[in-house]
Amino acid sequence: MLNRLKLGIRSKITLGYIVIILCLLAAIIILNHQITSLQEERNYIIKYDAKVQELTNNIEKYILDMESSQRAFIITGEPSYLEPYDNAAKSWKTDFNDLYLQLKEKPAQREKLKEIEETIEHWIETSGNPTIQFTKDNDTAALNEFFKVDNGRQDIEKMRNLFESFRSAENDYTQAKAHQLDKKNSQLTSGLFGILIVISTISIIIANGISHSIVKTITEVMQTIQEIAVTKGNFKRRIHVKTNDEVNELADATNLLLESVEKREWLQTNIADIVKKYQGISAITGLAETFLSEVAQKTEASLGAFYVREETEDQILFVKKAAFADGDDRVGINSFKIGQGLIGQCALEKRILFYDNIPQDYRLIRTGLAEVKPQNILLVPIIFEDEVIAVVELATMTGFNDLQQKLVKQVIENFGLTINSVLGRMEIVRLLNESRAMTEELQVQSEELQTQSEELQMQTEELTIINEQLEERTKEAESKSRELEKAKKELEETAEQLILNSNYKSEFLANMSHELRTPLNSILILSEMLAENSHNNLTDEEAEFAKVIHSSGEDLLALINDILDLSKVEAGKLDIIFDEVNMHEIPIQMEHTFTPVATKKNLAFQILKADDVVDIFYTDEKRFHQILKNLLSNAFKFTERGSVTLTIQQLTQQQLTSNMQEVSADWLEITVSDTGIGIPKNKHQLIFESFQQADGATVRKYGGTGLGLSICKEFAKLLGGWITLQSEEGQGSSFTLTIPSLPNGIEEEQCQKLAMNEVAVTAEEVMLIEEQPQEKEKVSQHEVEVFQGKNILIVDDDNRNIYALKTTLEKRGMNILVAKDGLECIEIMQANHNVDLILMDIMMPIMDGYEAMSIIRQQMKQIDLPIIALTAKAMKNDRDKALQAGASDYISKPLNLDQLLSVLRVWLVSKGS
Length: 913
Prior knowledge:
Layout: H1 9-76, H2 82-102, H3 107-136, H4 140-149, H5 151-211, H6 217-231, H7 246-278, H8 284-299, E1 303-311, E2 316-324, E3 335-337, H9 341-349, E4 353-355, E5 365-366, E6 371-372, E7 376-384, E8 387-396, H10 402-411, H11 415-532, H12 540-571, E9 579-582, H13 585-601, E10 604-609, E11 616-619, H14 621-637, E12 643-650, H15 658-663, E13 667-674, H16 696-702, H17 708-718, E14 722-727, E15 733-740, H18 781-787, E16 791-795, H19 799-810, E17 815-819, H20 822-831, E18 837-841, H21 849-859, E19 867-871, H22 878-885, E20 889-892, H23 897-912
Parallel strand pairs: 10-12, 16-17, 16-18, 18-19, 19-20
Antiparallel strand pairs: 1-2, 1-8, 2-3, 4-7, 5-6, 7-8, 9-11, 12-13, 13-15, 14-15
Helix pairs in contact: 1-2, 1-3, 1-5, 3-4, 3-5, 7-8, 7-10, 11-12, 11-19, 12-17, 13-14, 14-17, 20-21
């Protein structure tokens, strides 16, 4: 029946295609159904696994957030740390229920979830909520007891293990499902190959049947060749043959020949076009831009850059001169060294580099709609006389074919000559321009030189005149120089005389201290004894005279001490020793010293110390006490009614200036406030000067020398601080001392050397400006017992001191022996072995106290005998020198009677025990 049916070639081909298409459609439908089924199952597995993983991770995260928040709140006590705990406590149950619903077909996994839920709830009930409540109640003991056991950690560890087991089971389930899908996929692949085999078999049978029916194929080949010959160069037409015989081979060979001729024609045409475009260009930038644009168009490149060789003194660079498809961020790096990057490597190797595996971070090609990654990169060196003078880089989105690469290779063969010619022409133009500029500049300079020559001639004449004047001035300068040298020598002699005078002044002050204190010692002791009137043999008026004499003597001593202190400050020879000061003891010491004064004057005395004041403060304790006592003494002195307040506080970092912070991090502000007479504003500066008070009425009413505040001001400077005053007349005064804590002292260069003999030091404590009369107690029965019958040896060359001490001590039952110098003391000691204590003066003729004490201790072996050193000339190291020579204790003149008796009592009791 098929043989009787007549079908044309087109019908046969159409019928064959229809059969093949139907088979393909059937196969596509079957495959699509199978693929869709597989995709649905795989999507379900992926979604289910992702959902389960997400929910388990969320639940575990919530519990860990609760644990972290719980511990943070326990550590800090900050309520804000409970917000994550409360949020997690509300959220974990929701995700747990959702996860439970996901496992409706897995009862075993649901059982594990229930166990996880019980563990979480057990942790919340036994660890989470109780510890938070303990923290809120500040129940530290319960917290410590809980963390000794810390059952919550076991719950957390158990929960993690359960989740790990749960996830492992889910992963096993997922792997099983995936294995089933893989098996179905294999079956689908086998079916696909079977269908392809069937369709291929049918196609071959149909094609084989049709091929026998093709008769006109040779005629078609001949017609195609004739058409190519007629068109004279239209090599784009090809011969299409569907048979698999010699005719088909002929058609293929013809088509290959046509393609080769067409490529050769395309290359020659495009090379000619490119060369024609860049001919006549004289600038390298224009040449590079034109060449790059034409090559990019011919090769369908999407990006391009043109680098030209430039030589400097120390290196060779390839600098970018043009770019194709340049954007705002510019195409390519500006320059490369040889061997640097692909451009440098291309120049180094002198060969074309082609890359089709482009890295992910390569520059994207920008279009109006998007940025696209290039497919190929082509780097081409341009060589002239075996030297790379330029490098071209091209990138494309579609890929460079062999024909386009061949075009680039051929077009650059002679392009190096063109570049070299342009560069040479540019260098010639540059040199020509420079030559012109230099010629013009030389002409200008020639004119300037001519002008300068005329000016120099005039200046030469002027210099001749000036030279004559300078010779005269030189002679005058030499004369003045000799005069200055003479004046310099006179100044040096004056300076040496001033230093000598300063030394004389220091020695004079030391001697004055000794000469004034020695008679003053007798005056104070005897006037005090007369004022006591122990025998009641003086009238009240005579006793009052004695008190006035004693008070005047103390005022004189205070004046001597103030003058010496002020002299030492002015001379720069006052030693400041920075050491630890216990700020806790300051209020106690001030209260102990001034409470009797406040009680006597019926004044309120308050001491206010801030809580933030440091316990240990570094300053000179002695000078610090002197300033405080002077300020408080003035406050009590000039206050008739009301109160005196001492305030101690530490300055905060905000109150410190940058200069203060550079000096020290700790600053104290001590304020002494009173409700006294006040000070007029125009006198605020005056009262800090030596021997100055507010006015004459103040001197007449309150007395004083006017040295106290001057000394306080100078001491404050030496301690690194200052004193400020706030006062109005009739409204009281507030003196504020501001000083830094200086563990290492004040770091400054010493401009003067210490003199060999230093000014005598003052007593341990500055006397109050107005010493209140002290009530003298009568000799107690205990003192009589201690002093009764004791043998005291007084060694002194001053009869007044001997008389005063002898009278005082004999009144208390002591036996007195007297020696006028150290030698006589040794003789008495050798004759009398019953001496209980020696009062030894230091400065004596024949043998001084140091030598006498050394003989007593070393030669006479009187180791335990108490020796009290007495002197009115107290040099800086005299105390240590006296103790080193053998003194048991040291007292400076003028003697304080109470202090002397106290020291005697201590050493006599110590010797007796």
